[in-house]
Amino acid sequence: MRLAGPLRIVALIVTAGLTWIVVSILLGGPGSGFPRIQQLFTSPENTATAEPRAKKFKCGLPQPCPEEHLAFRMVSGAANVIGPKICLEDKMLMSSVKDNVGRGLNIALVNGVSGELIQAKAFDMWAGDVNDLLKFIRPLHEGTLVFVASYDDPATKMNDETRKLFSELGSQNAKELAFRDSWVFVGAKGVRNKSPFEQHVKNSKHTNKYEGWPEALEMEGCIPRRTMAS
Fold first, then answer.
1. The model scores a pTM over 0.70
2. pLDDT of 153-166, one tens digit each?
3. I need a surface site. Which of 51, 124, 146, 221 has the fewest CB within 10 A?
4. SS (H, E, C) the chain
5. What residues are paired with 121 via a beta bridge?
């Protein structure tokens, strides 16, 4: 009976010790070697070691454009299945979602000073009337930016005047554009040099990515805004 008191004290000490160990493990105390409860319920993206997401800028560009420049991204149509896209300053000017693209040449006219869309229209270059295209690009004002993305066939209805007008806008490839070629181009009324924003892939059965069509083209960059004096 005399041992009951000391045994009770030992039992209390052992219980207290075990309780401290359990609490230390659950709370991740110093030297426990176990994660804290809060860490067990923290999502990976909230932790300091989470992989940072790559920041995207206007129109998905990997880098921001300089001051007084317009950010753009264009994608030509893929074969005759996926329509083209034209994005400017984070605004989609033409796309299948907007339901304003079509077979042929998809053209967006933009004010080179303000960056505002003037008009966007698709021209069927397989079965359409080339005069509709000529009426669209003949009366352009000085400094107007011209964004062009092909879809399916951009050239069958092209005539000499059409090719000349695109060349005067800065195109190097308009004169040789042919049946089912892929083409993206940004030019401007009144340019003195060839545009640096142009890509062209010939339709060739030896190199085509799709059966009967070359690969789709993607182009992005920064265009200097025009000034009122230029």
1. yes
2. 999 999 999 999 99
3. 51
4. CCCHHHHHHHHHHHHHHHHHHHHHHHHCCCCCCCCCHHHHCCCHHHCCCCCCCCCCCHHHCCCCCCCCEEEEEEECCECCCECCEEEECCEEEECCCCCCCCCEEEEEEECCCCCCEEEEEEECCCCCCHHHHHHHHCCCCCCCEEEEEEECCCCCCCCHHHHHHHHHCCCCCHHHCCCCCEEEEEEECCCCCCCCCEEEECCCCCCCCECCECCCCEEEEEEECCCCCC
5. 107
For residue 146, the cross-strand partners are 109, 187
Rounded CA separation 107/165 (Å): 14
Structure confidence by residue, pLDDT tens digits, 72-109:
999 999 989 999 999 999 999 999 999 999 999 999 99
Q: Which amino acid type is present at position 33?
A: G
Rounded Cα gap, residues 230 and 221, in angstroms: 21
Chain centroid to Cα 212, Å, comes to 26
- Model confidence at 39, pLDDT cuts 50, 70, 90, reads very low
Give the mean model confidence (pLDDT) for residues 14-25. 60
Tell me which residue has tokens 């340019």: 191
CA-nearest of 83, 171, 174 to 120 is: 83
